[in-house]
Amino acid sequence: MSSPTSSATKTMRGLVKSEPAPGLTYDPARQLPRGGQPGPGEVLIRVRKAGICGTDRHIWEWDEWAQGRIPIGIVTGHEFAGVIERLGPGVSHFKPGDRVSGEGHIVTGPDYNSRTGNEHIAREMEVIGIDRDGCFADYLLMPQENVWPLHDSIPDEVGAVMDPLGNAVHTVMEAGVSARSVLVTGVGTIGLMAVSVARAAGASRIFVVDIDEKRLELARRLGADEAFDGRGSREEMLKTIRAATRGEGVDVLLEMSGAEPAIDAGFEALRNGGTAALLGVPSKPTEFNLSKHVIFKGAKVLGIYGRRMFETWYQMEDLVLAGKVELDEIITHEIPLEDFARGFELMQSGDAIKVVMQVSD
Ligand SMILES: [Zn+2]
């Protein structure tokens, strides 16, 4: 394992989007960011574990979104846990050896939202692994403001999934689920996390729908009261949900799939005046019955992006420390960085829920 503390070492291993085509390139001799010298207020982090996200899969598959967004030549990845290796000038809150995770959205300029408590939707921001070098490499540079100290009793693999857990916590908290019935449409990594979080936050009844039997089974184990197979009868599902909610429908919809039929079914199941929090990202503009699902229903619709900086981080740390979110079964695979291709294949085949890569020791 190379160490930047020896002055001779200036290279590291990294997964690079090196050409405008599917896949990623393993570079065993990538230059360390800024030569391993963090600038003022920055820290150099040695990455220990990194999670593969759905976003990384878009970059891997080089879909339309990735083609329009990802600069060729960057190191990808944004979910990580690691150790502080070196401090830039003026860093006072951390020391070498501290275990950390970090918020990948780096605000780069003052604007309305970044100055009024909504940094997560700031207009000017760079995301690690998307706009600038990310964490699928031995080393990562980050401003100290974005670094989150990892509690001693939170293991690295959990630190490496704080990013998606933050999406789940943020969605559940924005919607407000206490003593309310909830439908989660789509139980991939974040949907499954949302089931745990909604349970912890006091949801009265949790329904989920997905098209993968394994995930439905896991959702039941994590606290879903009813898990519906989306390939089955929609009418049956709606009948069951309405029978359990005085004929009204659910109070809250947490949309985690981005899939048109699931969005439609989710709004169908929502009661009049209910709240829909939308996190799933449709891959293209979708057909949606606005008058039926939102206007005549008097529904509240919330777009959810990222996680609050840093209110969500405090909430998820508390939930993890209190043992309220069950992540063991969600992190299904841990593989070495060099096996990244297998990691992406496991995600594409649906065999994996969350894949975490071991980067360095
Ligand atoms: Zn992610």
Which features would summarize this protein structure in a list?
361 residues, alpha/beta, Quinone Oxidoreductase, Chain A, domain 1, Rossmann fold, six-stranded parallel beta sheet, 28% helix, 27% strand, binds zinc ion
Q: Name the CATH architecture of the largest domain.
A: Alpha-Beta Complex
Report how far apart the termini are.
8 Å
- Rounded mean pLDDT score: 96
- Class from secondary-structure proportions: alpha/beta
Contiguous low-pLDDT stretches (5 residues minimum) are none
Bound molecules: zinc ion
CATH class of the largest domain: Alpha Beta
Q: What summary fits the major beta sheet?
A: 7 strands, mixed
The domain count comes to 2
Beta-strand content: 25-35%
Radius of gyration: 21 Å
- The count of strands amounts to 17
- Principal-axes shape call: globular
User: From N to C, what is the helix and strand string?
Assistant: EEEHHEEEEEEHHEHEHEHEHEHEHEHE
> With helices defined by DSSP (H or I, 4 residues minimum), what is the helix count?
11
**Helix share, percent:** 25-40%
Under CATH, the topology of the largest domain is which?
Quinone Oxidoreductase, Chain A, domain 1
CATH H level, superfamily name of the largest domain: Medium-chain alcohol dehydrogenases, catalytic domain
